[in-house]
């Protein structure tokens, strides 16, 4: 039987592969080693197109469009495995790709990564998701077998389950429905609930595996995996810095609204960790990690899998989670400067001697049912917690809405009525607000 095949891709390049040199595969296709016309070693993936006959031509067109989009993307694709060429052959789609050194799945057979190496791997995978989001593509099957190493660079591959997010009527490409140990809770009862946040959940499972060498949920049966993903909290991450533990726990939240906004937010968390010169975690960081874990355990106990929450409620929960994240980072720096400071994370209160500074939130009086984030989703105020509310002093006004680059975020203004410029609320800004409050308190008559 014939085992060697040669073909010309749609751009006219010549490629060949041998069916006896299979290096991977699964329900969606097979991968073989191959060569280019100049002798370059490549990987050739053969995918069976399984749609019904009446949809066959349209499906072929959609596959070609997505492959060409990846090949011609002008943005940063450093962490994506881009096709070198493609060709339809009868009912098969042949995709030519660079040949990798090793998959993450193979690397993990030798054990978990150390902290620094693990952070690098997870960050590069998150960057790949950022690049996919830029292309309006959701991966839908992120797992170690679909992450490949080229030298020191990790890249996401196998977009066979990808959905074109720019097309509201787009079909799911190729075949399959994700890999069960990496499937987000919202997908078990609503398989069409795919979004970029389902990829973030899979990234959380993958990150747990990178740092521990094992999955958070092991089944072994499908019904066991469903129960675990929907209703059980993952095991505690031990031996990792608290900031990394908080990141993984948030990625594994049952409710999509409690996960990070997008992959860019995950990269920013990891960048802040890498920029930090203090690697030893103080009690506050451990407490913040415990708060995140308690939230996840409470959700698990209540069988939380709210994938159909209204957009408005989602944004408000996202706002609260983002505010707590900013404050958690600020608490680290506050305690480093003032070890005797008392902090109540639950009430978002900073106690400095006789001064109690409260960060509180409230909903706007009016919010359109079709709000797109241009208006404030949630408002807030930083005030002195006085015995009588009327005696409270306001130190800053907070607002959560759309900021630069189309992302949602917290901003603040000083209480001066002439101050109208909104500034980003980050850990440094929180420290400025607390310092200003202390100065005003000390200078009061």
TrEMBL record:
<dbReference type="InterPro" id="IPR000719">
    <property type="entry name" value="Prot_kinase_dom"/>
</dbReference>
<keyword id="KW-0067">ATP-binding</keyword>
<dbReference type="InterPro" id="IPR011009">
    <property type="entry name" value="Kinase-like_dom_sf"/>
</dbReference>
<dbReference type="InterPro" id="IPR017441">
    <property type="entry name" value="Protein_kinase_ATP_BS"/>
</dbReference>
<keyword id="KW-0418">Kinase</keyword>
<dbReference type="GO" id="GO:0005524">
    <property type="term" value="F:ATP binding"/>
</dbReference>
<dbReference type="GO" id="GO:0004672">
    <property type="term" value="F:protein kinase activity"/>
</dbReference>
<feature type="domain" description="Protein kinase">
    <location>
        <begin position="17"/>
        <end position="274"/>
    </location>
</feature>
<keyword id="KW-0808">Transferase</keyword>
<feature type="binding site">
    <location>
        <position position="45"/>
    </location>
    <ligand>
        <name>ATP</name>
    </ligand>
</feature>
<keyword id="KW-0547">Nucleotide-binding</keyword>
<comment type="similarity">
    <text>Belongs to the protein kinase superfamily. STE Ser/Thr protein kinase family. MAP kinase kinase subfamily.</text>
</comment>
<protein>
    <recommendedName>
        <fullName>mitogen-activated protein kinase kinase</fullName>
        <ecNumber>2.7.12.2</ecNumber>
    </recommendedName>
</protein>
<dbReference type="Pfam" id="PF00069">
    <property type="entry name" value="Pkinase"/>
</dbReference>
